[in-house]
Structures
1.
Amino acid sequence: MNLIKKLIMEVINEEQLDEKLITYNNRKPYGQVVFLAGGAGSGKGFAGSHFLDSAGFKVRDVDEMKLQLKKLNRLGKIDVETIIRKFGKNIKPKDMELITKVFGLETKKGKKLTLGTMNLRNPDHVSALHYLVKGMGIKDNSLMYLLQGKNNPETLPNIMFDITAKDLSDITDVIPQLVKAGYDAKNIHLTWILTNFVTAMKNNKNRSRMVPEDTLLKTHEGAANTVWSLVTRALPKGMDGRVDVVLNNPQHTVFYQDADGNNVKGVAKGFLSLPVKKAGGSILPEKVWKNKLFDWVKDNAPDDITANME
């Protein structure tokens, strides 16, 4: 069997609904980085716990950082005024207008809105919190502390970055820090969780933190454009790990079932994924994956995405 046929058979096997799990470097307990990309509401948390070998990874999720900020406010450790005084210069004027509007409002009880009392089902509140966290540079600082003192490659923690990939900088701004810390390029991976945009909108409405609809759209458009550009043109310098796309729609996931026919929580029995690159190797031949991925994007991403894809 020649190489092309062998690769095609591997992809076909990947698409079958058989028991499997995406793993990174044979589940090595250190030195692995995964950029887990996908628009808001795409179910990255679900995919990470059901489809990926993520148990040994420290997950860096900006949404979780935002919740921690609310908790710190309730404990009296931080407040909006202090954040603006220290980090206001890092916040764009337009974003500051929304922050001022949101936190200048009075609640029905006549109390001033705080980080601890804001409603994350309110899209404006979610956006204001996002701008504050971005201005504080929490993502960069938390990574710096996580890597501090890790001089031995065998002490580098496995890290999973939960990102939208709306902007390429979500990846390229981080890689130099990882390489400097000692991570090997072939151990820096990319996994895109592609979810039908209509499904993502439904998921968003059922989440405890509801993203504004225009932001939701931008994250899905951005993720599709970013990942498509990376796999069809060139991966960023410093990223030479495996690249996979998971089609995360309910109809494509098969669960284990108990004797009564009820789904069992945990690793899924089967799901759809498409390998695009192996760790340390080149992108697989386009005939193996490109048409399939194009069809997946066309059928699941926002309508105007494929118009920009070549």
Note: The first strand starts at residue 33 and ends at 37.
2.
Amino acid sequence: MDTLSNKSKLVVASVLATALAGGPLLAQSYQGEQSEKRDHEKTKLHIVGHDAIIGAPVINEHEGTSGKKLGTISDLVLDARKGRVLYAVLDSDSTTGADRRRTPIHWKSLEYNAKKSMFTLAMTSNAVKRLPEFDSKTLQRLGRDVSATDATKQRKGDVGRDAAKWTRPSLVLVSKIAGCAVLADKDKLGSGDTLFLEPKSGCAAFLTVQTAPPPQGKTDYVVPWAALRFVEAKGKQPMQLQLGRPKGALKAAPKLGDEHADVNKAEFRKKVYEFYGVERPAYEQTESKKGKEHERLRRLPKKRH
């Protein structure tokens, strides 16, 4: 005698059929959620210290999933007035060091992988070898190129009246930022330490300023790059960065030692912007819009099939 009645068998069969029919839909729903999550990760804002970028490997993305290592980033070329990285200095790999080359790579040609802390470049090693070598005169040459481009924009009316100040080259190596003097009004506040960048746009986001260690220990101020003014080196006077407020007004300034101090947290970045009275940069406003759109789509009711 069957343990289940005919009616019970029909109910079980119906449940199984529903589960089997819904399986693909559940899988599609799960895949859709995972895809949404991956898309959100791609657009998520990542602020990275220059010390994490310098030394990062550069992989040729045309060499398959494993890729071929083209070299490592040894420095960055920053337009200090505009606060944007224009080039990365690529050191080609060499086991002996005899054929080591340094090559300027346009920043827009590189794609940063935050999870793997590496860059991909759509160029073969042979193509990289054909690029000009980076030497002591490269910054001057690149500076002239930038000046010529800005001058052309000014003639076409693409930039404002004060564009003449951009026609003077202000390219510096990021490695030189670390250790340069930062002045608060006329007093020395400390020395530049870590430059934080938004890799996708190449924008300089923040600079940590390290004070001389008093008896209670050093202080690391977190300053938006937009709050700093670049003072180029003249004669024996080295490059400096000027912060337009007195040293005494910085007692409550955001510091790395503060609780929840993290440049990748929106709340902390907002606190820094508000203290120094600077607007949120364009890349962060774009990120905020993407985040709101992602949240809106996430809250929409799932379609029933």
Note: The CA atoms of residues 59 and 69 lie 4 Å apart.
